[in-house]
Each structure stands twice: as structure tokens, then as C-alpha cells.
Write a structure and sequence with these properties.
This protein has 249 residues and is of the alpha/beta class. The protein contains 10 helices and 14 strands.
């Protein structure tokens, strides 16, 4: 079997099974595990699958079934998600931005929660789709490959027709003078549209995002409804924000 044909079979197996071991592939294709490991490494570099210890998973599998043991600041994001959940009630219409903090929130929503949730984040939509009683609506548009969120005028127009009770916005930078800022112009525009479409906006920020300023304005300090961090409210880092009148959790 030629290398190109063998690697295509590897991709096919991963696509079908979503996760396969090197041992399984070696036996199925009648080649050595070393050969399979080299194939997986090459295919990972091409973005056709994701290399993991002992085998490979589909690229889509990686997007929302992330490894919780290695996710950056996982425990802090769990703390934030648990605080955010206290704001959610049955029957709410909710908008969610992208980011791993919101992804953690989507994962931890109570299994009996009944809500309608709009998101432009493909990983979050896929996570929410596993929830038994949440109606998930994915807002389609042009997908940014690095973050797997949709952007563009179609997304903004869609959001303009929604009136949500709550909007959960993942934060890239939070500064006591400039408020919420982001690093991408198009994502910043979408987040502004989300803010305009919601009665109450909740900003989720791990403490490493505090006291940082990025290029694109999203929300000034005076317009922040609620900001949630992983810190206790008496932490000195939060004092400038509290003094400025920001409602923190």
C-alpha cells in the first residue's frame, strides 16, 4: 500500500471513529506502529487530524472534547462558570461568545436547565448540543479557523433580531480605565452586536486578563452590567474596578 493511500485510510478511520489508537491502525493497515506514528505526525501538521498520546483524534473532536487536565487555568474557569450559573434561570434566552471559559460554562450548565442559547462559536454549539434540555442555535457566517467562531455582517444582522435575557462574553482584556477590549476587529464588532442584543451582559474574565489593554474597544467600564472573575471580592487586584463602580462576582 502506497503512503498516500495509507494516510488517507488513517484519516478515514479517525473521521469515522473520532478517536483511534496507533495499535489499532497498525493492525488494520498491516504496518508497524512506528510507520503509523510517522503518518499521524505528518497528518497532524497538515491539520487533517490531531495527534494525541497513543494515537489520534479528529480535529473536530479536539474542538469541544478538550483535555481538561491541560486546559489553561482550568480551575479558575470552573470557579467563574459556577458563579455565572447562579445568574441563569429556566426559560431564559441567552447569547454566548466563544472562548474556553464559556466552553467550561457550557459544559457545567445543570442537566435540568431549560433555555434557548445562541452562539457564534462552533465548539460551544457542539458542547451545548449534548445538553438534554437546551435549545441550541448556531449563528452561521464566515468561520475564523483559529478560533472556530463566525464573523461578518450576516452574524451581526442575525444578532440584531434577537432580544436575550443574558449574554455571556468571554474577555481577552479587562482594564480599569478602558473597560473590555479585544485583539480582533471582526470579533469585537460581533461582541458589540451581542451586547446590543441583550438586556444584561456578563463578562467572564480570568485574573490574568485583568489590567490589560488590547487594540479594539468592546465595552466601556460604565456600561458593564456584571463582571465575573476567579478572585475573591476582597482581592486587592479588584479594588480599582470596585472603586469605579463595576459590579463584580
Amino acid at each position: 500500500m502506497k503512503k498516500k493511500e495509507r494516510q488517507q485510510k488513517v484519516v478515514d478511520e479517525v473521521s469515522i471513529n473520532r478517536q483511534v489508537s496507533s495499535t489499532f491502525l497498525a493492525e488494520k493497515l498491516n504496518v508497524s506502529e512506528d510507520t503509523i506514528r510517522r503518518d499521524i505526525k505528518e497528518l497532524d501538521k497538515k491539520g487533517l487530524l490531531t495527534k494525541v498520546h497513543g494515537g489520534a483524534i479528529s480535529t473536530m473532536q479536539k474542538l469541544y472534547h478538550y483535555n481538561e487536565d491541560v486546559i489553561y487555568k482550568r480551575e479558575e474557569k470552573v470557579v467563574i462558570a459556577k458563579k455565572a450559573i447562579t445568574l441563569v434561570e429556566d426559560g431564559m434566552v441567552i447569547i454566548m461568545s466563544g472562548g474556553t471559559t464559556n466552553l467550561m460554562l457550557a459544559k457545567l450548565f445543570p442537566k435540568n436547565l431549560k433555555a434557548t442559547i445562541y452562539t457564534y462559536s462552533l465548539p460551544i454549539a457542539m458542547q451545548l448540543a449534548e445538553h438534554p434540555t437546551i435549545e441550541t442555535i448556531f449563528i452561521g457566517g464566515r468561520i475564523q479557523r483559529n478560533s472556530m467562531v463566525t464573523t461578518g455582517i450576516d452574524v451581526i444582522q442575525y444578532l440584531s433580531n434577537i432580544t436575550a435575557n443574558l449574554c455571556f462574553i468571554g474577555v481577552s482584556a479587562f482594564n480599569a480605565e478602558q473597560g473590555i477590549t479585544g485583539e480582533g476587529y471582526e470579533v469585537a464588532l460581533v461582541k458589540k452586536a451581542m451586547i446590543d442584543s441583550s438586556e444584561r451582559n456578563v463578562y467572564l474574565s480570568t485574573s490574568n486578563k485583568l489590567n490589560i489593554r488590547l487594540n479594539y474597544d468592546i465595552c466601556p467600564l460604565k456600561e458593564i452590567d456584571i463582571a465575573i472573575t476567579d478572585l475573591e471580592l476582597d482581592d486587592p487586584i479588584l479594588k480599582p474596578y470596585i472603586d469605579s463602580g463595576v459590579v463584580l462576582m
